[in-house]
């Protein structure tokens, strides 16, 4: 006789059935919560509101895991939150008065300053700004776009609480011919409010075809000056590839201790443009003169080279720079990074400098051919690498006061008044000539050079203002004193800001 297993009592069957139903209800609640959170996050993103924090795992009070395991979960959650990207600033909501197109002109640092100015103008006039176009027509003929040099998404996101920036014009304006114009140089905020805003409202789309030095150094509201700094030192971040290679070079240079950067602006374009030919042969002088006449936008053609040099308007030659470095007391084994393009005259012209300071390096010596290959024929991207190293150096010494010299100096002030030696070229060439004519001994020359530059090491100071002569007064981006608080407070602030 086959025995059958006894069926469970009815009460037990009811308990089993109840447990199954509870499990189903619990699963439905979990699924509903997940869907609700997902919809909520999408809604916050759509409205531009910072996302609410996700629930963090807590140590279980019901057992099943050890206290250490539960604690590790909390630590892991904290680390994940630390590694997560920072919350985006609230989007500023405003009625746009029109679209601003910007065509930058010049080299990297001239365009960098111009972008800061144009963002500030767009914010002040409540415009929508389109990602700037970079100069592709000048001497360098660099085909790089904005996104090849700067991190586009970071640029847009970090300024969303100030101004709306789009990657291209909306479709309805794509076939509209914008009003093209050049704002007046060194203009005040009132000029843009009274002269430019009515034009934008009328035409809806305006293009600035020239952007260099179109905003005054001084006399602007404090909030606009601080916005220029925010764009320059926070929003304009280089692309990850440029940042990575720049950091690699800085790390390599740091392995052997401190290093200085010499911005040796002794390149063919600078010499041709400025007409500075001191130390050049007759053949080189003729070549530079032909080049100057070949470029119609270089308006000054007939130039007295020696007169300009004595006025301090020429870059120091590599030989003159060598004398100055020695006189300032830099030891022979100083690690010197040369930030520049190709030096006119090549290795021959650098021979004296290398003899006195043999520990000289350039980016080509710090990076492999494979690493540099994507940057070849892109002078603006190469200049971005030099910029990163220059800002990070222990001492920065420019041989000329061009755009890079000024913008890097201002950046170094912002990050803690790091030393930049502002060479007084007018007095230096007088001293150099006296020394070379044996009218000064080496000791007298060295003492004079040191005394001359004792107060030219980027100490905190205010910009020199010359009413009616904006070209002659101190440049905003060389010394943005409105943005420079006490050094300690600024360092504390920079701990939370990636420059």
Automatic annotation (TrEMBL):
The pathway noted for it is:
Glycan metabolism
Domain of life the protein comes from: Eukaryota
Assigned protein family: Belongs to the glycosyltransferase GT106 family.
Transmembrane residue ranges: 26-49
> What compartments host this protein?
Membrane
Major location (coarse): membrane
GO biological process, any: fucose metabolic process
Q: What is this protein called?
A: O-fucosyltransferase family protein
Keywords assigned by UniProt? Carbohydrate metabolism, Fucose metabolism, Glycoprotein, Glycosyltransferase, Membrane, Signal-anchor, Transferase, Transmembrane, Transmembrane helix
Q: Which molecular-function annotations from GO does this UniProt entry contain? A: glycosyltransferase activity
One cellular component term (GO) for this entry is: membrane
Kindly give the membrane topology term recorded for this protein. Single-pass type II membrane protein
């Amino acid at each position: 006789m086959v025995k059958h297993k006894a069926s469970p009592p009815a009460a037990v069957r009811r308990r089993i059935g109840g447990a199954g139903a509870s499990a189903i209800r619990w699963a439905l609640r979990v699924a509903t919560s997940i869907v609700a959170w997902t919809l909520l996050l999408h809604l916050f993103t759509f409205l531009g509101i910072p996302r609410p924090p996700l629930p963090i795992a807590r140590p279980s009070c019901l057992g099943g895991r050890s206290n250490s395991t539960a604690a590790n979960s909390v630590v892991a959650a904290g680390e994940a939150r630390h590694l997560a990207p920072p919350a985006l600033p609230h989007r500023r909501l405003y009625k746009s008065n029109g679209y601003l197109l910007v065509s930058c002109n010049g080299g990297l640092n001239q365009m960098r300053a111009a972008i800061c100015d144009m963002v500030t103008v767009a914010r002040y006039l409540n415009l929508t700004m389109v990602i700037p176009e970079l100069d592709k027509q000048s001497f360098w003929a660099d085909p790089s776009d904005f996104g090849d040099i700067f991190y586009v998404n970071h640029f847009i996101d970090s300024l969303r609480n100030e101004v709306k920036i789009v990657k291209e014009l909306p479709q309805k304006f794509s076939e509209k011919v914008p009003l093209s114009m050049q704002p007046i140089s060194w203009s005040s905020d009132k000029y843009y409010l009274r002269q430019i805003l009515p034009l934008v409202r009328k035409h809806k789309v305006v293009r600035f075809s020239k952007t260099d030095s179109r905003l005054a150094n001084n006399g602007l509201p404090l909030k606009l000056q601080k916005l220029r700094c925010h764009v320059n030192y926070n929003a304009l971040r280089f692309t990850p590839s440029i940042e990575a290679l720049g950091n690699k070079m800085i790390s390599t240079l740091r392995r052997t201790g401190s290093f200085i950067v010499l911005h040796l602006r002794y390149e063919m374009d600078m010499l041709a443009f400025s007409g500075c030919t001191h130390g050049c042969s007759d053949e080189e002088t003729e070549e530079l003169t032909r080049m100057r006449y070949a470029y119609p936008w270089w308006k000054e053609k007939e130039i007295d080279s020696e007169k300009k040099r004595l006025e301090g308007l020429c870059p120091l030659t590599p030989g003159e720079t060598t004398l100055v470095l020695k006189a300032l007391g830099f030891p022979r084994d100083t690690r010197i990074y040369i930030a520049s393009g190709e030096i006119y005259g090549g290795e021959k012209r650098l021979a004296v400098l290398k003899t006195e300071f043999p520990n000289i390096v350039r980016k080509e010596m710090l990076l492999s051919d494979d690493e540099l290959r994507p940057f070849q024929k892109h002078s603006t991207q190469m200049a971005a690498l030099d910029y990163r190293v220059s800002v990070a150096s222990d001492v920065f010494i420019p041989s000329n006061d061009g755009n890079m010299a000024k913008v890097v100096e201002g950046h170094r002030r912002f990050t803690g008044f790091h030393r930049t030696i502002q060479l007084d070229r007018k007095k230096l060439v007088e001293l150099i000539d006296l020394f070379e004519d044996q009218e000064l001994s080496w000791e007298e020359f060295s003492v004079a050079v040191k005394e001359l530059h004792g107060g030219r090491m980027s100490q905190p100071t205010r910009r020199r203002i010359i009413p009616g002569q904006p070209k002659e007064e101190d440049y905003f981006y060389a010394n943005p004193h409105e943005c420079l608080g006490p050094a300690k407070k600024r360092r504390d602030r920079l701990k939370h800001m990636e420059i």
